[in-house]
Amino acid sequence: MSDAASYSVRDGIAVITMNNPPVNSMSAANRVHVGGALKQADADPTVKAIVLIGSEKAFSGGAEIREFNTDKARVSPVLPELNDIQDGLKKPLVAAIGGFALGGGLELALGCHYRVAMPKAQLGLPEVKLGLLPGSGGTQRLPRVVPMAEAVRMMTTGAPVSGGKASALGLVDDIVQSDLLEGAVAFARKLVEQKKGPKRIRDLPPKMEGDPKKFFEAVRAEVKKASRGYPAPLEIVACCEAAATKPFDEGRKFERERFMVLVEGNESKAMRHMFFAERQTAKIPDVPEDTLTRPIGKAAVIGAGTMGGGIAMNFANAGIPVTIMDMTQDAVDKGLAKIKANYASTVSKGRLKQEEMDRRMALITPVTTLAAGKDADIVIEAVFERMDVKQDMFRKLDAVMKPGAILATNTSTLDVNAIANVTKRPQDVIGTHFFSPANVMRLLEVVRGAKTAKDVLATTMKLGKAIKKVPVVSGVCDGFIGNRMIEKYGQQSLFLLDEGCSPQQVDAAAYKWGMAMGPLAMGDMAGLDIGWEIRKRRYVERPNFIYSKVGDKIAELGRFGQKTGKGWYRYELPNRAPIPDPEVEEIIGKYRTENKIKTRSITDAEIVERLIYALVNEAAYILEEGIALRASDIDMVYLTGYGFPPYRGGPMFYADTVGLPKVLASIENFSKGYMGQVWKPAPLLVKLAKEGRKFND
To answer: In the 8-state DSSP scheme, what is residue 653?
Structure first.
């Protein structure tokens, strides 16, 4: 037996306890232990039944992801072999599920003959979230104990069910209300008394009614629509169809074949990259993990507009009292009403209880003076995006806020150092760039100023996680990581219009490739006046920066996007769907004529390459300059803040999968075309391409 596991016999009931913190993953060592213990129990004549248990916090979290694509993943028994051992037992085997049984952990439980669980236990097969399908009989066993439609839903969404719901579905045989081990042993003893032997799921028929062909045609169409670009959900449907139409062993063989295809595919590798990249963002080389952080008991937000209100909701959601300040009572009242409406909408959809909404609203205090929030441990400024306005506010905050309070700016592009330097405590100043809508978007760019104290940085990163964001550290530069890159993306989208594309062609190509929306539709949603203001600032600060002026022509007509009903597209209430507008085609056509631009036919493949490689090339500069700590941080910015498809792993990971020499060759080719002078390959990209290396080495 492993030191990390235990085996004991209690009055004829063998108890095998998995103890592989933190989640009892099915690592090579754990599989060997469980397999050996099962054989020992089956061979012991004094043992009449077996209980397999983890802890009350975790039965098993499934496969050890770090072992994927390594020799350890092939150490015998692999999970299917372990399931064979379970199926071959001559004595009843009971899984005692506390905390959660997820992925391979639930497949292990499904390999048991009976299952008991605590009411709030979570049972699920979330492999789809890593671009995979259950690879150890999950797609074959689950539809034999729960209705097929529910099994498909659980696996294609990855959503778990509670112990109580699992019992109602037939996934769990009994609910244990208090002591899990005692309850499981009692259940096993009852099986012995009633002379009930093994009940193998593999021997049960699938739980479905009606014509399988019609059922799976409908399910396949529905899943295809919902899983745009993701291969795993449709593969899961195919495996479930095999469960309904083939003998168990044939279905399991088919499942394993499809699993191996997915595990070697770029989509799963990308999503696993995303899984680990998210955990990596908190690691800051010069800030030790044990850095003492400042307590955050109260917060304040300056600005009760859409952004300020969304930021305040994050604190309330986390149980942190927050004051929200604006210049007038009318402004704060409108802000509070908007917050209340947002919460009410969530309540109406059944995703929040009314009493929880009331609790959160009670944590938000509207005020009209800065002094009312002076005791806050952190204050976040969300006022108009102009340097003089920001600096004036920070002078006032410096005078009002208590010593040790963190002064944070929500600026999306401005110099955090220039803001910090107007205060007498630049060490307490940091950037917290939330993304709109701030109460929904997961990304938080944490901008470290030249004088930002290490404990301020550590505190802000910890706070980011507490309010359920993905905090990513950025250095100071114009636009930080995300917006600096998106400027190059937007620049190319306008050049594509110059050369002959329509807005809908550019957007459709980006959407089909996997982006949440195209660049022009995104501009309409954000507000074209924002980009216009930035370009006007650029014309003064960086006169050599090249733009197509076609974007200015649109904005000059007051076409600011969704908020004005017209932008690159036309919008009609109550729908926000973009409608192609002939007037825009006329504006673009006139611009081409006035500037003597020769148009040509452009493929969707070229559109995508120019948009995505513009991101990649600028990101390489950002990485080389040390603005981003690592390539995976840049990927997380785009995966959580800019609608980049998770199954492509982020701009840097995607470039790695394409191959940096190919990316570089394309960029060099673009440099010979229209506005080619903007394509200057980043030295880091050139270096890595020549060395045959990757950004995410």
So the answer is: H
Q: Which residue has the tokens 């969704």?
A: 562
Q: Among 2-6, 202-206, 296-300, 685-689, name the one with the lowest average pLDDT.
A: 2-6
Of 406, 440, 188, the residue nearest 309 (C-alpha):
440
Helix H or strand E segment including 528: helix 528-541
DSSP one-letter string for 109-142 = HHTSSEEEE-TT-EEE--GGGGT----SSHHHHH
Of 686, 309, 628, 636, nearest to 480 by C-alpha is 628
Structural domains of the chain sorted by starting position, each given as residue range(s) with its CATH number in brackets: 6-263 (3.90.226.10), 299-474 (3.40.50.720), 482-691 (1.10.1040.50)
Exposed / middle / buried, residue 64 (Cβ in 10 Å: 0-12, 13-18, 19+): buried
Q: Is the pLDDT of residue 96 over 70?
A: yes
- Distance between CA atoms of 616 and 623, rounded to whole angstroms? 10
Q: What is the pLDDT of residues 310-359, one digit of tens each?
A: 999 999 999 999 999 999 999 999 999 999 999 999 999 999 999 999 99
Query: Can you give the pLDDT at residue 4?
Result: 58
Task: Tell me the catalytic residues.
Answer: 107, 127
Backbone angles phi, psi at 147, to 5 degrees: -55, 145
Alpha-carbon distance of 268 to 83, in angstroms, equals 24
pTM above 0.85, yes or no: yes
Strands of 18-131, DSSP E: 49-53, 93-97, 100-102, 114-117, 122-124
**pLDDT score of 1 more than 70:** no
